């Protein structure tokens, strides 16, 4: 972070205006900026990326912007400046050049919005398919084998909203999940009404290739271990100390010492209260498993694969009792919504369908957008469920009902896959293409969004799996790929390093749950039960991080810098998430009881949600790199 | 109007390195978008634009940092910076290591209040994280950077109360005491609004019998109703305007107060008398191109007249923010002054 050794060019720190002016003319930066084409080191240390060779250009842009903004004393300039703040969407402030360009573009753009699209024509007549097919699940094959079954089974739900209402008289779907109701999409209608040139401009403007110093940032980020101390009680400190010492003993395979420390931990834990006690309990349990692992089922109970039903219950409670999943869904939906602007046919691929909690809000936002909703296709992917559980298609069914009530042309396909790596591009193709075209009308190609919330890190347990999945993603040529991951490094270094990282990470998370539960309890009761189940949800992750290895260790969380590198290598460019999503996410948090400590931050186009100063999850958005040429399917197969 | 803007840009460009000019101009334009004419502040956009860094217990250039929740009800956080501790094993420092004295010999504890005219920035802003790390390396100090509540959401006296809470917290940490007499050697430091906060916390300390070893005020933020000569002469010329100063005071001071409120103008008509109080000695650094310098010089003079020790460092050609980038004489020489001041008051 610090660049103390990057002193002035002439070594003594002296600096003379004339010399600087001369350097300006050469178009180079001044002190501390040694290399051509590299970022200015001093500004980089403060979070700004400006190439030394472009410093003068950037300065000129800033002058241009200042001129355009004028003085804030004139009345009309006040309106202009406030427009810049409230109506303009800002992107990626670290890249000053792009940030300024974006604002200047806004200022030069026409002040009147373009005429909205004419109202959409009535939905096409329902598909000419016998009615009973709506109820039969075509191509559906319930797998009865165990979790390692890798066949893909599909559930297709074509729907015709009116037909549904006529024949099945469904009860109105209960209001979409509480969080969705609180999300205000109205104000981002502006970004949706924006014509596609603006959208293209934004996506173009954010695709500047990573600068040479990004690798240094990655190296620094790899080593950063943020710690927030919320409890400096003596007992808490000794407990952490004992846990760490035990982890070290385990790493050195001094099992006698580990055992002795474990006894100490048990004693210390009883005198501890609050979040610290619970976190310590989970870590102690995980260490115990690791020390005394019953052969051969070392990882039993730690993997979400072991009990998908229980996992879904815990997931649901975690969703309700804390803002993390809601933030993930909200920010990803925002990026998807913007990417779908102007598209008449869209397809969302959800890598972790579960209860489909993310999608009601997106459907409602699409229904509300000026110009009307697109035809919406959803592919939900989920793991094999125990015998006869039709969870995956039931979710689709419920969403279809919702879509019906808000008049969205909705189709659903469920794909059961033991691993995302079993996916092939052809499985994501539209199964009905060509069947329903209306007399020669050219169909616009589908705009595809691929959405992954906490699903990618599990692929790191098997070499090559992530690369295969990203290849499949590229092959379907998505307009946007949304990724949400834990902002932590629980996959590198030694066991002790991983243990330490995880201890700090989950301590912070548990502390945040504590605050939320207190407030929820005060408001409506039930907060404590939700909290306990949420802690169990996280506890399974802790167990996996600490006591598992090899292919069983699926909670291989990595931080943003590492994901950036992986996505870059796989042929994706970042798409910056802007200030409108940031603002709305912040407002959502303010509504969330106990939200005082939650913080949204922007980091090079990505948004993070954290507790106090520690980011805990990160949302990023991606598109296929412009430079990636050739046949993507061939490339994926390569 | 456009013409005079051009002149302004050229003037400020000739007195700072280009990358400094880019940095401060970027702040200036961003900040212009955040202040609304009706006195409200676009906090969400401010947080979006602010470049932040996390704490880091892994040593970087020999310095580690970690955040502490000092007061849960107000969510008052502080970031602690210290020399990397020696650890028992090669592993990353644990809390016991972090909360152990860096040295048996006397070392300074610097409570730092970041700038931002009471409205901007945080203790985890990159510009202030960088500065605090430098103070650790410079003086072998433990630095406590206080994330005080900001205006306009939190007006006077919230920032001062948070400063006082931080001083109380520091006083209660045994590992921050050093030397044979196990004494707390605490300095209050700050730039811009942070300098103002340091002064007022020092006053409260003096009145409460809490010993402060010294105050370090970098371009401290003071003002008054009167328009001084420097304000008129330098208005709009070097990144700062009278208008923005007025806006920030209005945001911080109580409803209906004017700039002769003692928070803003401690030696003005409503200021408290400091004669006879055990007020600490001060290092006051003034930039010659800062439009509020007349108030800062008056402040230094006020301290002197009240019988208190002041070392005034006047950097003629320096602008605001010169201490953010290590690329001028001003930076290095002022750092030396700070080091000397702290060392001689330890």
Topology:
The complex is a heterodimer of chains A (about 650) and B (about 350).
Chain A: H1 17-26, H2 41-45, H3 55-69, H4 75-86, H5 96-108, H6 132-135, E1 153-158, H7 161-168, H8 178-182, H9 189-193, H10 196-205, H11 214-223, E2 228-229, H12 234-251, H13 255-270, H14 274-291, H15 308-321, H16 324-339, E3 345-350, H17 359-368, E4 375-382, H18 391-405, E5 410-416, E6 447-453, H19 465-475, E7 480-486, H20 495-524, H21 527-547, H22 560-569, E8 572-575, H23 579-591, E9 598-603, E10 606-611, E11 614-624, H24 632-637
Chain B: H1 2-15, H2 18-34, H3 43-49, E1 63-71, E2 76-83, H4 95-98, E3 109-113, H5 126-139, E4 142-146, H6 158-171, E5 177-178, E6 183-184, E7 186-191, H7 193-208, E8 214-218, H8 229-234, H9 242-252, E9 282-287, H10 293-305, E10 310-315, H11 329-344
Parallel strand pairs in B: 3-4, 3-7, 7-8, 8-9, 9-10
Antiparallel strand pairs in B: 1-2, 2-4, 5-6
Helix pairs in contact in B: 6-7
Textual characterization of the structure:
The complex is a heterodimer of chains A (638) and B (346). By secondary structure, chain A is of the alpha/beta class. Chain A is 46% helix and 11% strand. Chain A is built from 24 helices and eleven strands. In chain A, strand 4, helix 18 and strand 5 form a beta-alpha-beta unit. Helices cover 38% and strands 16% of the residues of chain B. Chain B contains eleven helices and ten strands. Chain B starts with a helix and ends with a helix. The model of chain B has no long low-confidence stretch (mean pLDDT 94). The chains are: A alpha/beta (638), B alpha/beta (346). Chains A and B meet through helix 1, helix 2, helix 3, helix 4 and strand 2 of A and helix 1, helix 2, helix 3, strand 1 and helix 4 of B. Strand 2 of chain A pairs parallel with strand 1 of chain B.
- Give the termini distance of chain B in whole angstroms: 51 Å
Q: Which spans of chain B of ≥5 residues are poorly predicted at pLDDT below 50? A: none
Major sheet details of chain A = 10 strands, mixed
Structural class of the secondary elements of chain A? alpha/beta
Helical fraction of chain A = 40-55%
Distance between the termini of chain A: 39 Å
- Give the biggest sheet of chain B: 8 strands, mixed
List the uncertain runs of chain A.
1-14, 16-34, 110-152, 159-221, 434-440
Count interface residues per chain for the largest interface. A-B, 87 and 76 residues
Q: Which value, in Å, is the CA radius of gyration of chain A? A: 26 Å
Please state the overall shape of chain A, judged from the principal axes of the Cα atoms.
Answer: globular
| Assembly classification | heterodimer
């Amino acid at each position: 972070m610090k660049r103390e050794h990057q002193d002035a060019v002439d070594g003594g720190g002296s600096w003379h205006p004339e010399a600087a002016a001369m350097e300006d003319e050469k178009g180079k930066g001044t002190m501390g900026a040694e290399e051509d084409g590299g970022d200015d080191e001093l500004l980089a240390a403060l979070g700004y990326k400006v190439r030394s060779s472009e410093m003068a250009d950037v300065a000129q842009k800033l002058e241009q912007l200042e001129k355009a903004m004028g003085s804030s004393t004139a009345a009309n300039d006040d309106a202009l400046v406030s427009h810049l703040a409230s109506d303009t969407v800002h992107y990626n402030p670290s890249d000053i050049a792009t940030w300024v360009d974006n604002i200047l573009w806004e200022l030069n753009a026409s002040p009147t919005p373009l005429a909205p699209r004419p109202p959409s024509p009535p939905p096409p007549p329902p598909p000419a398919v016998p009615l009973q097919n709506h109820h039969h699940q075509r191509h559906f094959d319930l797998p009865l084998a165990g979790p390692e079954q890798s066949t893909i089974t599909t559930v297709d739900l074509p729907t015709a909203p009116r037909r549904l209402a006529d024949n099945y008289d469904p009860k109105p779907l209960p209001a979409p999940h509480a969080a969705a109701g609180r999300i205000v999409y109205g104000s981002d209608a502006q970004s949706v009404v924006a014509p596609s040139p603006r959208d293209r401009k934004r996506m173009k403007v954010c695709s500047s290739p990573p600068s040479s110093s990004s690798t240094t940032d990655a190296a620094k980020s790899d080593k950063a271990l943020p710690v927030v101390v919320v409890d400096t009680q003596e007992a808490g400190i000794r407990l952490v100390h004992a846990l760490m010492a035990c982890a070290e003993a385990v790493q050195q395979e001094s099992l006698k010492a580990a055992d002795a420390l474990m006894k100490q931990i048990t004693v210390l834990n009883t005198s501890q209260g609050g979040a610290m006690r619970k976190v310590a309990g989970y870590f102690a349990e995980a260490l115990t498993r690791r020390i005394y692992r019953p052969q051969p089922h070392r990882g039993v109970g730690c993997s979400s694969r072991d009990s998908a039903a229980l996992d879904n219950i815990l997931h649901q409670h975690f969703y309700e009792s804390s803002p993390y999943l809601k933030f993930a869904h909200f920010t990803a939906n925002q990026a998807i919504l913007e990417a779908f602007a102007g598209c008449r046919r869209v397809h969302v691929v959800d890598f972790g369908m579960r209860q489909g909690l993310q999608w009601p809000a997106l459907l409602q936002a699409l229904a509300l957008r000026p110009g009307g909703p697109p035809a919406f296709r959803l592919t939900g992917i989920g793991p094999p469920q125990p015998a006869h559980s039709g969870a995956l298609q039931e979710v689709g069914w419920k969403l279809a009902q919702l879509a019906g009530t808000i008049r969205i042309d909705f189709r659903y396909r469920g794909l059961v896959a033991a691993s995302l790596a079993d996916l092939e591009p052809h499985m994501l193709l539209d199964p009905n293409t060509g069947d329903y075209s209306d007399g020669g009308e050219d169909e616009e190609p589908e705009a595809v969004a691929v959405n992954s919330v906490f699903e990618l890190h599990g692929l790191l347990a098997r070499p090559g799996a992530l690369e295969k999945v990203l290849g499949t993603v590229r092959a379907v040529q998505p307009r946007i790929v949304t990724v949400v991951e834990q902002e932590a490094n629980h996959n590198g270094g030694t066991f002790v390093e991983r243990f330490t990282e995880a201890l700090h990470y989950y301590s912070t998370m548990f502390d945040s749950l504590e605050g939320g539960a207190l407030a929820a309890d005060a408001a409506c009761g039930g907060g404590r039960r939700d909290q306990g189940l949420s802690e169990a949800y996280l506890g399974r992750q802790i167990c996996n991080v600490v006591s598992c290895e090899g292919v069983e260790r699926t909670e291989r969380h990595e931080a943003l810098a590492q994901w950036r590198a992986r996505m870059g290598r796989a042929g994706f460019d970042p798409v910056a998430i802007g200030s409108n999503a940031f603002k709305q996410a912040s407002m959502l948090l303010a509504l969330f009881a106990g939200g005082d400590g939650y913080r949204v931050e922007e980091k090079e186009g990505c948004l993070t949600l954290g507790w106090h100063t520690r980011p805990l999850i990160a949302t990023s958005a991606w598109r296929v790199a412009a430079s990636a040429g050739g046949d993507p399917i061939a490339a994926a197969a390569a | 109007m456009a013409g005079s803007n051009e002149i302004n840009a050229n003037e400020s460009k000739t007195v700072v390195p280009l990358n400094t000019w880019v940095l401060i101009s970027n702040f200036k334009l961003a900040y212009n978008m955040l202040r609304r004419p009706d006195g409200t502040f676009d906090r969400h956009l401010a947080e979006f634009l602010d470049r932040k860094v996390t704490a880091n217990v892994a040593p970087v250039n020999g310095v580690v940092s970690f955040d502490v929740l000092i007061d849960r009800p107000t969510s008052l956080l502080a970031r602690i910076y210290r020399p990397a501790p020696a650890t028992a094993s090669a592993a990353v420092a644990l809390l016991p290591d972090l909360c152990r004295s860096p040295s048996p010999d006397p070392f300074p504890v610097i409570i730092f209040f970041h700038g931002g005219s009471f409205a901007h920035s945080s203790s985890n802003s990159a510009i202030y994280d960088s500065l605090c790390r430098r103070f650790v390396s410079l003086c072998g100090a433990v630095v406590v950077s206080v994330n005080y509540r900001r205006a306009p959401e939190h007006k006077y006296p919230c920032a001062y109360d948070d400063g006082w809470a931080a001083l109380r917290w520091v006083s209660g940490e045994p590992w921050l005491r050093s030397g044979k007499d196990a004494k707390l050697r605490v300095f209050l430091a700050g730039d811009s609004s942070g300098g103002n906060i340091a002064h007022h916390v020092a006053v409260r300390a003096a009145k409460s019998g809490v010993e402060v070893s010294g105050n370090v005020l970098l371009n401290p933020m003071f003002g008054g109703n009167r328009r001084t000569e420097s304000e008129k002469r330098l208005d709009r010329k070097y990144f700062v305007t009278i208008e923005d100063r007025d806006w920030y005071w209005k945001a911080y001071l109580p409803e209906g107060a004017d700039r002769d409120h003692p928070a803003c103008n401690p030696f003005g008509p409503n200021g408290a008398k400091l004669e006879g109080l055990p007020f600490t000695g001060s290092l006051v650094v003034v930039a010659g191109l800062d439009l509020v310098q007349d108030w800062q010089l008056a402040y230094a003079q006020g301290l002197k007249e009240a019988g208190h020790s002041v070392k005034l460092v006047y950097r003629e050609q320096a602008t605001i923010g010169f201490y953010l980038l290590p690329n001028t004489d001003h930076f290095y020489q002022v750092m030396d002054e700070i080091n000397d001041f702290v060392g001689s008051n330890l």
